[in-house]
């Protein structure tokens, strides 16, 4: 491990992922639901956002592509993360984003404009107390009054169950020689063997064997960055709240809107117990104990303004939503982190059909008799659930759409080109959502073929076969060019019929 990593795992990059949690429309929706005034700039697409510890920087790059009137600062001390995203930014014509190869300490010495939003994803639990103090100082100095912080962290008490697993992986990875990915694979195998023997912690703790099995399907990059850092601290929510107060930050609520629907996870008796706490941070911590939460995504505001009930209602009424799947793909029962949730067709059918037409404000939805009959609370609750489960999303306002479309088109062209070689961010920037839309490599190759006016199945096969990829059909591998191209032709027809219309509505095709 070299000196600059400050105890953070070195020699292995983080996974390439795009996260939706701090996209501006979602932040605004969550803040409004919690009764806070969202920063005006964030609502209008004119804001400054920072992402310290941005990893490969793909989320910041995508948001920059979707929000040309906003400004982004993303930084990470790992030069290979920054090199890759700078190349993407240059190819995608991003003039509004800086990707800095800096440590948190370097960044804290920098001056810059005040920030409307800061995202700390995958950082707080995985860096030292000194680095958290540096980040707090940045937040204290640079987050604008009214600004918002998104922060994720490993939470207590749920993480307690995984602490010995982390120790086991750290100990086993430190032994033996070979490359880190090989040592990680051996350490996970070793943990699985211990789990198979049972006994002690392995037998007495719910979910441990399952977590080890899940690790077998995770990349070494994920496991290294989740478990192998010198610092790895899980927090009670109340301690995070008290710590953030040093930067004048106040807890605003859960970033994932459905996490505020207490009745989903708690009985009325449990809710009554949580309500006995006068301190909201304690009440939230009691809820975490009753649900055994192991990971939190929280929003904090600095000098946030409380909305009155009428203004909150008015802002929610204006918020527009769109469906992210075809209306007939909406499930009747959704699998969620807290179990299976029914989506009764009497409400979800008309709602899905309305949202599939294009962006609809809550007020416009409630003007439809088929939805009004269910009442406002039920419709809003359904929107909270659909949004949290990535089946629907809030959109940006109509204003500025043309400018966002031009910028997203430029950025998406660069993203699509990367899918020729599998070097994939896996998401396109939607000017309507101001956020990402996931696409598979094959979908990206179909879209790229359309841009180039070339035959899609042959184009996709050319690039997939260069990587030794063959398709499957009904559990059988397609052998040879003819069978693979026939399968790609079939998939392209299905894509044109079902996915393309949706991607067009979202402005990514
Ligand atoms: C788990 S990754 C999360 C990346 C990104 N925020 C995301 O969610 O995809 C944490 C990142 O923080 C960076 N990091 C850790 N300590 C740092 C420090 N002291 N200064 C700058 N970056 C740091 C690491 O290089 C890593 O890319």
From TrEMBL:
Ranges of residues in domain FHA: 469-495
InterPro entries from the UniProt entry: FHA_dom (IPR000253), Methyltransf_25 (IPR041698), MeTrfase_reg_dom_prd (IPR018773), SAM-dependent_MTases_sf (IPR029063)
Source organism, top-level taxon: Bacteria
Pfam families for the chain: Methyltransf_25 (PF13649), MethyTransf_Reg (PF10119)
SUPFAM superfamilies from the UniProt entry: S-adenosyl-L-methionine-dependent methyltransferases
Protein name (Swiss-Prot/TrEMBL): FHA domain-containing protein
Protein species of origin: Azospirillum thiophilum
Organism ancestry: Bacteria, Pseudomonadati, Pseudomonadota, Alphaproteobacteria, Rhodospirillales
